[in-house]
Each structure stands twice: as C-alpha cells, then as structure tokens.
Fold each of these.
Amino acid sequence: MIHKTPKLIIQGSENPLQGTVRASGAKNAVLPILAATILCAEPVTLHNVPKLQDVTTLTDILRSLGALVTIKGETVTIDPRTINKIRASHELVKLMRASILVLGPILARFGEAEVSLPGGCEIGSRPVDQHLKGLEALNAHIVLENGYVHARAPSGGKLIGAPVLFDLVTVTGAENIIMAAVLAKGTTIIQNCAREPEVTDLAQMLVKFGARIDGIGTETLTIIGVDKISGGEYTVMPDRIEVGTYLCATMLTHGNVLIEQCDPTHQEIILAKLRKAGGIIETGPDFIHLKKDASAILPVDLKTAPYPAFPTDMQAQFMAMNALANGTSTIVETIFENRFMHVNELARMGADIRVEGNTAIIKGVPYLSGAEVTSTDLRASASLVIAALVAKGTTTLDHIYHLDRGYANIEAKLTSLGAKIQRV
Ligand code: EPU
C-alpha cells in the first residue's frame, strides 16, 4: 500500500511578498518553559504558545506524567499538581530530542527520573553528556540502562547546588541544569552558560514564579535553590528564527514586509547580515520592516556560533538567499557536523554550492528552477520553501512534517503575503 503524506506545492513567482505578518511564540522557548511547569506547585497559564507539532509532543509528555493540560488557541494551561510519574517513555521522546528537557525538572521535583535517551538526529550526533555531567555536579547519581537515563538525587530527594562548568555552550543543556538547580539545596553557579534569548525567557519565567536567579542573559548564572516555585501566567517570547525566515523570504522576493510582535533586539546579527545583502530595514520596539528593492541581492559570508553570534538555525535560509546573490559567499557551520543537507536539494533547484568540510561555498546563480525536493530537517525545509517562492515553475516539497514541527501556519502566513503555496 502506498501511504500518501502531505506535500507543499509552491508556485514560483516574480511577485514580491507584501504586507504584514505577526511573529508566533518561539518554539525553542516554549519547549523548556513547558518542561519547567513540572517544577511548579500551582497551575501555569502560558500565552503566545505556537501551534506546532513539537508543542504537542511536549504536552503529550506532560500528560503522560499525569499533568492536566488544556489548550485553547495559543493559550495553554498546565496543572502540574497531578503529576505522579517520573518516566518519560521512548515512544514520546523519540519524536523530539528536546524531550530531554523534562529530565532536570522531574529529577528536581521528585528526586528521581527516568527519561529515554534521545538518539542522534539528521543534523548531527547531538550527545547529552553535558546535561548528565551538570546533573552529576548537582550530586545526582546517573545510570544509563536499556536506553534510559535513570537519575536519582541524594538521599532526602533533593539535588545539591554546586558549581557547574560547561565544556561547550549548550542551549538545552543549560536549560536542564537551570531547571534542576532552581529547587536544589544551596547555590549553583553555572559557567559558560548559553546566552540564547530562549534561555533568558525560561529564566525569567522561573523568576516570575519565585526562583532566585542572578546573571540572567550572561554566561554566569547564580541560582539559589528555593523550596518551591508557584505558578501563574507567562507570555512566551517571539520566535526570532521564524522572523528571520520571513525576512529572508522577503529579501528573495524583493518584497516589502512588516513583521509585528517580534523583538528586534534578538535579531541584531541577522539584521546586520540582511542589511549587508541589500535589505532596507527599519525597527521599532516590537516590529521589523524590511524592504528589498529591485537591485541584486549581495552575497554575505557568515559563520554560525552561539548567541549573540550568527544562529545555526538561520544558516539554511541564508544559503537559499546567497544561492541567488550577485557573487560568491561562504557559510561556515560550527555547531552541528551535518547541517548541510539542504545543499543537495538546493542544487537540484539549480544552486551552485560546494561543501568542503564545515564550509559551503555558494556561487550565486541568476535563477533557480522548481523541482521535487525533500525536507530533511526543520530549517532545511524552510530554506527550500523560500527558495521555491522565487524559483521558475513549481516546487513540490515532501516530508513536510519537519516544517510542521517548527513553523506555525506557514502556508497561511506566506499566502497572506502573496505567495502561492498549497498543502495537498
Ligand atoms: N553538545 C554536546 N553535548 C551535550 C550537548 C550538546 O556535545 O551534552 C553539542 C551538540 O552536539 C552541538 C552543540 O553542542 O554540536 C550545541 O548543541 P546544543 O546543545 O546547544 O543544541 P540543543 O540544545 O540540542 C538547541 C535548539 C536547536 C538549535 C541549537 C543550537 C532547542 C529545543 N533546540 O538545541 O534548534 O539548533 O540549540 O542553537 O532549543 C531548531 O530549532 O531547528 C533546532 C535544531
């Protein structure tokens, strides 16, 4: 039997994207924030929660632990008081690597946790050794058995605050340790902590509910453990990667788009690179307005690195833009070892890209042509969608479940700006 899975059919066009679009809540902020509700002693209401498959996966995990979850549009209410299980099963964890985020909070609240160990994924091997090392520093006893991480706090059931020095910058690793340290006995000092805005958003939510965290937004966090944190309401930050993706789409189509409800302070390097490529950008407290005139896109070199440097999650979209630029550019990927899978698919649309180690050399071509292409991971899919908007002819994109993991209403949003895109 042939299974028919949804595809996107995108009609390339010379029409510029035009209009106004609202940023959704950030996927990579809402996932740790949902996990952090496990720590709370009272119900939590979250606003600006994007409708994404990854959010469904994490709320399914919370339900499987015993939480009551209600979803109404972009508002999600979680009652964590009924959580009575400590095991996150492989069946759910295998759907999304970020599920490892429940490890720290389950362990902190119950003194014990069993979480399926995420495997490698399309973009790299992505070990979680730093998460485990950090929890061990907080005196957890950790055993890996039958594909699960079994973690136990010292007798008395509480983790013990301690210095934690990360060997490398890890976003979810930092988030796991922050969540674990919030209810630990004593003080935890985290050094070489990721400074991504999503880490800051999590820390701010925890502080709002009663956690004691100093140094938020810096690479050294001091967390003084408290007996409990309450609950309440919190609004998730806007998705800077979604915003960046729509900005690249606007550039490619020589469009004129206003993005509302975003935070331009999170996008500084992205905006700087877009200006280099020829974008005319105006920002206000919560909007970005980008215009690209009819002149050619200029090539921009970039190298991915932890925040505030250029985000790996925007690399593929900039590659689509560079593929049509007036000249040659290089993109160096330093975060993940296998995050160039969009290269071959872009090449099938006519792009001229050569990969040498962790560097892609992109020679701009005058046009791309529509093709049948395959999504390989979330951001690779986004790069193919935006390339398809300007390719000559029709592009069919399959395996779009990758896209649905991280982009809320992508067809509706692009269609409202004038794109011709359809799900079949
Ligand atoms: N790493 C280790 N050991 C660890 C943890 C990480 O060696 O214990 C390595 C990774 O293999 C990678 C590097 O450290 O080479 C950085 O990985 P990081 O841990 O920061 O990535 P992550 O936390 O798993 C988050 C985002 C990713 C984003 C990266 C980098 C979430 C849910 N995911 O992943 O988002 O690419 O940070 O900024 O926050 C996406 O949205 O498309 C996405 C992949």
Note: The longest helix spans residues 53-65.
Amino acid sequence: MQNNIFSTLFVGQNFIKLTSVDSTNTYLKNLLAKSEPLPDGTVIMADEQFSGRGQLNNKWLAKPGENLTFSLYLKTGFVSADQQFFLNQIVSLSVYEALYPLLGAALKIKWPNDIYFKDKKIGGILIENNIQGSSLKSSIIGIGLNVNQSDFDAELAEKAGSIIQFLHKNVNVTTLMTDICQVLEKYYFQLKAFKLESISRSYDSHLYKKHELSMFEKDGELFVGEIIGVTTSGYLEIKTEEGIQQFAFKEVKFVSTDINQT
Ligand code: BTN
C-alpha cells in the first residue's frame, strides 16, 4: 500500500513525522531497540533536532523548521561488510540526483558523502550500520540538508551553505525528502541487483575536485595532489608526487580547495 506523500514501493511507506527530537538517527535506534521489528524503509523526519549528530562525533546544527533532517531504516542484509561503501555511494547519489534539477552542475559529492554546492557544504550524511558477522544486517541512514536557512553562526558560515542562499527562493523540505527517497529506492534495487560498477561510475563522475590539484593534510603534513577516484572499499585515491596513494576517511583532509597551476 502506498501512503499519500511517497510514490515509492517501500521507502517511506512507514512514515513518522516529529516536531522535535534529539536526533532522528538516535530516535530510530531507540525504536529498534525497544519495539517490534520495524518495516524496511521506515522514515523519520523532524522539524527540529536539538542534538543532531554528524560524522566524527560532530554536532549537526540546523535551524528548526528551515531545514531537512530525516533518517531511514533499511534492511541491508544482502550487503557484505566489505561492500558497505556502496551504501554510502547510493545515498550520496540519491541526494545528488534529487537536488540536481534545482542546482545543476555546480553540485558535487565530496568524498566520502558530503553534498557540496560550489565550495559550500549544503548537506551531510550519517550512516550507522549494524554489522553481523561478515554482512550488514540493517542500516540507519541520516540525511541533513541546509535548505531555507539564510544565515549560519560564525563558526559554520565559512564552510556551510544552503539551497536558499543560491536559489534565492524557498524550497519545500517535504518534497525534497520524498524526491530523495524515490531516487534512493531506485538505487537500493540497483545495489540489490549488484550493479556495483555502474553505481561507482556514477558516484565517481560527481566527485568534488576530481582531476583538480588540491592541497591536503595528513598527520600535520601538507601535500598537493589530484583526486583520481575512490576505491570500492571507499579509499580516496590521490595522485601525488610519490605516485597514486589511497587514504581512509579521517586519514586525510582537504586544506584548501584551489591550487593555481603555474
Ligand atoms: C555530517 O557530519 O556531515 C553528517 C550529518 C548528518 C546529519 C543528519 S540530520 C538527520 C540525521 N540525524 C542526525 O542526528 N544526524 C543525521
């Protein structure tokens, strides 16, 4: 049975809308811990998160009522633990494809799964996998998008941006969410059919700063390199003076975005 707002087969067919919650990811986790098994594709959306979580234990700050914050529950038992990066790729691609008609070619996926417009982060993804043995069992996928928030606190303003800052008009957050879920369902079926090469090819083609010289930092040392792609395990491949090197998440970070070639 389809519900009113999602034209999907299963993603979002069990939909819970909250006014205020600590974090939609945490809410889903608690629900799973204490209730009957949840339907595959359950979606929790909140107008406000008062303790939103980001990657690397960072906070996710979003002004109430102006942004999109939601989480999805997916049964991902068919994904082996060493293929879990494909899940990151399909979620990034879903956000990318849902936003592309609004924002166009300056939209990029910054490895591993940030959503960038020009040089501003407009969205982030937090995936929490439940791994059992050598496979995933289920995944909680949290998506935060800066949508109708025009200004950010000083600590965020340099790096963060929002859709309204670029489009100069309000965007309906619920429509955005249903669009993302619809694309995600398409990619979920592709992942289930193990169309892995095609998923990686699409992800790679939208990578932020691909084939551009950029400055990176590893263990306090700066180096210049060119992103050439991402491995199937999710390592970033950078061409440096010393050859092609692979980096895990947390191991390397962008320092500046543009290096002028001389
Ligand atoms: C990042 O650090 O870039 C990831 C941010 C993920 C934020 C979303 S908002 C909905 C869901 N609930 C959370 O607490 N975090 C994720």
Note: Residues 258-262 have pLDDT under 50 and may be disordered.
